[in-house]
Design a protein that fits this description.
Helix content is 43%, strand content 17%. It is of the alpha/beta class. It starts with a strand and ends with a helix. Strand 5, helix 6 and strand 6 form a beta-alpha-beta unit. It has a single domain, classed as Rossmann fold (3-Layer(aba) Sandwich). The radius of gyration is 19 Å and the shape is globular. Helix 1 packs across helix 8 and helix 9 crosses helix 11. Bound molecules: nicotinamide-adenine-dinucleotide (NAD). The site of nicotinamide-adenine-dinucleotide has 29 residues, from helix 1, strand 2, helix 5 and strand 5.
């Protein structure tokens, strides 16, 4: 049995990763500072079902607390690390760039430094499609230049990748940086469109449509992302940056229609200008993920939204 550290393990993606690793018989140490970027009770609920599992150990811990992190690494001698703890959210990073820089850059450096010190076998870093910024060429490929991010969040994610690359070069750590494309599904982040729109359409509240509705996102279902993370964790790829997306961008207009159909209610739409920091399109080239990881997204948008809404209905009761 291997011991895997999952940072940000009470969050949306992290909690699903913990579930999958436990299912596969690993011992999981999950850390999260349960901050209030969104309601911390949601995060507590994300991990609650695992608290009685003897292979699941939870610590409320901040990745900026290097001393405590060091003690944790020394106690558990982790085989592998999945580093997902971060301030996420493009728009909020414009209002409060400092907390993004601290958490996403220093926090990542803390983990890399300890992974090096304690000889971790494999390190997976949760990066983001936002590093492609306003790139015009689609689909976005890992070999494209990524020098023009449009939000502080995206810059911190790119900085995280560069630190990973540097730690690989200096210390030969095995590291895979995975660029996630708009992840959605049960336990989704309440600040992101899939869950926000679902909630608002259900409750007959207006939704904001930024721009003319032709901006597009490569929505990727959570179980496909977890597949990709676990594939990467089980390979030693030396150092790689790999896109994890669905490779099927959906326009905002179409996305709203899909939710309307699944909820069986028309949305009340408020048109708003595109916010600063948002990009017009995300679209993943996933050939590298297929080749190196055997990654193949399985859940189509209609099925993914159906599952999200089923979960949402259960949660409300
Ligand atoms: N959801 C997406 O579509 C998406 C897309 C691209 C990249 N990502 C990346 O994936 C990762 C997970 O995202 P998510 O959507 O699950 O977000 P999330 O906010 O639900 O999860 C992040 C978790 O990290 C924790 N955290 C934040 N700062 C911390 C700190 N200083 N110490 C310890 N824990 C801390 C938070 O409390 C939260 O539970 C993040 O790194 C994010 O940047 C997500």
């Amino acid at each position: 049995m291997e011991t895997v550290l999952v940072t940000g393990g009470a969050g949306f993606i992290g909690s699903h990763v913990c579930d999958r690793l436990l299912l596969e018989g690993q011992r999981v140490v999950c850390i999260d500072n349960l901050n209030d970027y969104y309601n911390p009770n949601i995060k507590k609920k994300n991990v609650k079902h695992n608290l009685r599992n003897k292979n699941f150990i939870f610590y409320k811990l901040d990745i900026l607390n290097f001393k405590k992190l060091d003690k944790l690494f020394s106690k558990y001698n982790f085989d592998k690390v999945v580093h997902l703890a971060a301030r996420a959210g493009v728009r909020a990073s414009i209002n409060n760039p400092f907390i993004y820089e601290e958490t996403n850059v220093r926090g990542t450096l803390n983990l890399l430094e300890l992974a090096r010190k304690y000889d971790v076998k494999n390190f997976v870093f949760g990066s983001s499609s936002s590093v492609y910024g306003a790139n015009k060429k689609t689909p976005f490929s890992e070999s494209d230049e990524v020098n023009e991010q449009v939000s502080p969040y995206a810059v911190t994610k790119r900085a995280g990748e560069l630190l990973c690359s540097n730690y690989h070069n200096l210390y030969n750590l095995n590291i895979t940086c995975l660029r996630f494309f708009t992840v959605y599904g049960p336990r989704g982040r309440p600040d992101m469109a899939p869950l926000k729109f679902t909630h608002r359409i259900f409750n007959k509240l207006p939704i904001d449509m930024y721009g003319d509705g032709t901006s597009a996102r490569d929505y990727t279902y959570i179980s496909d992302i977890v597949d990709g993370i676990v594939f990467a964790l089980n390979k030693n790829l030396s150092f790689e940056i790999i896109n994890l997306g669905d490779s099927n961008p959906i326009t905002l207009k179409d996305f709203i229609s899909i939710i309307e159909k699944s909820v069986d209610r028309k949305a009340v739409i408020r048109k708003e200008p595109m916010p600063k920091g948002d990009v017009l399109i995300t679209y993943a080239d996933i050939r590298k993920a297929k080749r190196l990881l055997g990654y193949k997204p399985k859940i189509k948008i209609s099925e993914g939204i159906r599952r999200l809404i089923e979960w949402y209905k259960d949660e409300r009761n």
